[in-house]
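Following up on my earlier thread - several people asked me to post the actual chain instead of describing it. Fair enough. Here it is, all 143 residues.
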Amino acid sequence: MRTLQSISIFALAAAAISGCSTTPTTSLEPSRLLIGCWEGKDYQPVLGQSAKWLMQRRSDGTFDIEFRAQGQPPQRETGRWRVEGTTYTTVTLTIDDEPVDVRDPQFTDVYQLKDLSANSMTYFHSKMNMTFQSIKAACPSDA
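Reply from S.P.:
Thanks for posting it. Predicted structure:
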């Protein structure tokens, strides 16, 4: 019993000390937290300017995202997403309802989850050397 108490106290102390790590801070599985709608605004290299986005991730591993940049029509993408540990990956399947060649690496984005809670996420794209932030948002109605 004492050994179990000692291990529990050690685990709590280790958790408190590791609070400054780059591992997402959540007790829920990351993929469960990511389900739903998330919005953000940041520079989008493909669009060449800042854009707002609204992404809906579903529990079946599919997503829709819409980018809105000033002076440009909205761009809508659909695809698949997954999380393995702290690695978050998206694979775009269509852009504005047109299929893309999924073998082309530009349509696969791999991020490292830096921080994740029920209301916000911070994730890093190493190939672009960019960090993005999103907050939980209300999903548009499907009615």
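Residues 26-137 form a domain with the Lipocalin fold (CATH 2.40.128.280). That should answer part of your original question.
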